[in-house]
Amino acid sequence: MVLMLITRREEFSASHACFNPALSEEENRALYGAGANPSGHGHNYVLEVTMDGQPDPVTGMVYDLKRLKEVIRREVIDPFDHRFLNYEVPPFDRVVPTPENIAIEVWRRLAPQLASPSTRLYSIRLYETEDLYVDYFGESDAPADAPL
Question: Would residue 144 count as lying in a domain?
Answer without folding.
Answer: no
